[in-house]
Design the sequence.
């Protein structure tokens, strides 16, 4: 029995969808390996815990940067590991794998993804554009001749597309997403509080009190880091209004990209989008206030899909099911 797998190969995390079972795996796309022996020490959550905390010879890296493979060999090992973990040792037949890629990838970049999947043991590889996968996963019927706008904010890229009749009509992909939100917070803390914090602390701030739109009640959080003046550990209190200030420039660029796609959209599809609204997907869509910010700037009703982090993986897997169902007809 052939197995169909859908993989959301994200910059921040990898999700694996198995036909008939749904999303069965979600782990960070981090690999820790020993520089001396070139041996992989840990993959996924175990490796993420090592980020910024390893001795000199062990390096914890993200083999995918801005939605693109930056380290081919490590990515291949990572895909292999996740496929085996998802299927277990019981499988005899090579799986059919579909992988989603950002809409702006070059031919060389998509070829690298394909080859890594084949090297990881795939029998057949299908690439699908992220916004299309996100739309399918969000439960939108993309086969109809009407416009749907998807804004997929991942870890490394933000894909914005208008989809109709199963394909993208207008799209753009900007290399600005969740990781850039973290970097903006790191920069702000350094500038405003003279405090040096790591990526994981910045992500904690973003998740707990991060917002892109003023909240009714200001939230607070204690943050620990290294004082840049004295070099000693220090604790400061950060408020949600400070995160709004820190993220203003980055989120502003995403809103500009959304407006730019809307300006290029054919009038008939624009009317559909006005009726149906804009759908946000991806982990970055969980940042508070993003819906309100886009809605305020565009005047179009904006909503976040249910389980925004999983929709791309679900859509990628359902795309495979769709294709195999057509093949069987």
Sequence:
């Amino acid at each position: 029995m052939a197995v169909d797998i859908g993989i959301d190969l994200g910059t921040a995390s990898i999700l694996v969808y198995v036909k008939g079972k749904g999303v069965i795996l979600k782990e960070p796309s981090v690999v820790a390996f020993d520089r001396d022996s070139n041996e992989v020490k840990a993959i996924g959550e175990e490796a993420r815990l090592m980020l910024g905390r390893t001795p000199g010879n062990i390096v914890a890296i993200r083999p995918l940067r801005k939605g693109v493979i930056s380290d081919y060999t490590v990515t291949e090992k990572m895909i292999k590991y996740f496929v085996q973990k998802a299927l277990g040792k019981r499988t005899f037949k090579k799986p059919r794998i579909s992988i989603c890629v950002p809409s702006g990838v070059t031919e060389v970049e998509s070829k690298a993804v394909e080859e890594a999947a084949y090297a990881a043991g795939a029998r057949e590889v299908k690439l699908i554009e992220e916004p299309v996968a996100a739309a399918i996963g969000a439960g939108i019927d993309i086969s109809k001749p009407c416009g749907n706008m998807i804004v997929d904010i991942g870890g490394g890229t933000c894909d914005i597309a208008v989809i109709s009749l199963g394909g993208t009509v207008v799209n753009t992909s900007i290399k600005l997403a969740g990781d850039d939100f973290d970097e903006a917070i790191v920069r702000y803390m350094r500038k405003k509080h003279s405090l040096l914090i790591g990526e994981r602390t910045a992500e904690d701030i973003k998740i707990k009190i991060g917002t892109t739109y003023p909240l009714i009640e200001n939230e607070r959080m204690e943050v620990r880091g290294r004082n840049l003046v004295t070099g000693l550990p220090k604790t400061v209190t950060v408020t949600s209004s400070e995160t709004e200030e820190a993220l203003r420039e980055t989120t502003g660029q995403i809103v500009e990209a959304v407006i730019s796609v809307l300006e290029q959209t054919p009038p008939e599809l624009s009317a559909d989008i006005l009726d149906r609204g804009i759908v946000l997907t991806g982990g970055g869509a969980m940042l508070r206030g993003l819906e309100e910010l886009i809605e305020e700037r565009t005047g179009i009703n904006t909503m976040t899909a249910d389980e925004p982090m999983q929709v791309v993986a679900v859509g990628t897997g359902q795309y495979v099911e769709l294709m195999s169902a057509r093949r069987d007809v």
